[in-house]
Amino acid sequence: MEIPMFSLVSSPFIFLASLLSLFLLYALAWMLIAGRRRLPLPPGTTGWPYIGETFQLYSQNPNVFFASKVKRYGSIFKTHVLGCPCVMISNPEAAKFVLVTKSHLFKPTFPASKERMLGRQAIFFHQGAYHMKLRKLVMRAVMPEAIKDIVSDIEAIVVDTLRSWDGMLINTFQEMKTYTFNAALLSIFGKDDVLYREELKRCYYILEKGYNSMPINLPGTLFNKSMKARKELAQILAKILCSRRQRKEESKDLLGSFMGEKEGLTDDQIADNVIGVMFAARDTTASVLTWTVKYLGENPSILQAVTEEQETIMRCKEKSGEDRILTWADTRKMPITSRVIQETLRVASILSFTFREAVEDVEYEGYLIPKGWKVLPLFRNIHHSPDNFPDPEKFDPSRFEVAPKPNTFMPFGNGIHSCPGNELAKLEILVLLHHLTTKYRWSMVGPQNGIQYGPFALPQNGLPIRLSLKT
Q1: 81 strand-pairing partners
Q2: Which CATH architecture is the domain 41-469 placed in?
Q3: How far apart are CA 145 and CA 147, in angstroms?
Q4: Residue 86 annotated as lining a ligand binding site
Q5: Average of pLDDT values for 395-401?
Q6: Whole-prediction pTM value?
């Protein structure tokens, strides 16, 4: 069979054209890769090998660290903290880029020490279907519809807590940590499993001491002690899971949500996420409460406005013949108190930043953020920028009578990884402030201007106060 003449001519031509196309595609890809590689890293310094600039960040006012960096390098700069190379960003647009617009390029993460202590299957470290599944389970237990039923239980914890402080000189932060941990245990385990609560507290208190330690697992180090406590904590949780399965009772608390048969979570996954919730629920809320007590004590007119609002709720309940126990509806009638909480969250900025990790090389504003680097949106800088909040160092709850500009107020983060438990945290604060302002008076003891750091910014010495019943 003869081959047509055009085939003899076109076949080499097609081959050469294909070869040329492949070469051009390869050249274009190489140019793109080379161009990406030529992108500069953000300006900045990385400090000492491995240690980096960890101590500079955690041992002083974080505002000083951030402000000096921003002044020298601008709103995006590199550093090295807790064993990780990092890029820090300090404006609302950049925060939105990382947390919302391009959130798929930045997975949530923590330093290696914290990741190992909380457990690698905890919600904080994941994206995609597994993260959304866990978020749904957490939300089921802490959304308003669920926590409406535990207002009276939280109130009972508050009443017992405040009664134990009466006439005492207390360390506000330490006592608030005890309160918020008891409230966290209530939301996780309900009223059951009382037998294990003291064991859970003992182990967790050891564990938390190592959260910001360097991941050096040698005998005697904080990290080593914390990992031992973490193992014991997992064993206690295994006993609780076994006990619940034997009882075959359905529970509406967080543990019950995790244990649902159709959810298919392993015991290790449940343990990692229970420990993660303990971590998320304790120190941050306790810090907010400590700062709130301080700011109210320093601003008598604001304290008076909050007290009058809370007393009005009490009088209305008395006039209508209602039970004096607080309800969810009562907590919706506290706009002044709620604005005080918002302003505390802004001024104190308990979470100075959050951790994300680039899942691939990312270009932002002409800089390369390499794959694997941590990216830290600086909430504190955004909350303290005069461009976002005039006179930012002034404690002024009235500024929240008008909603802040988008992406300028992010005390609970932003996007799909924002804190799912923010409504529960607000409820715990509102209920405590109701009883604190209507039944007690307090005075701050000792120096009141000092601030201590590591990792959260706190009033000096945890804010010692003396509390007494109103007469």
Answers
A1: 84
A2: Orthogonal Bundle (1.10)
A3: 6
A4: no
A5: 97
A6: 0.85
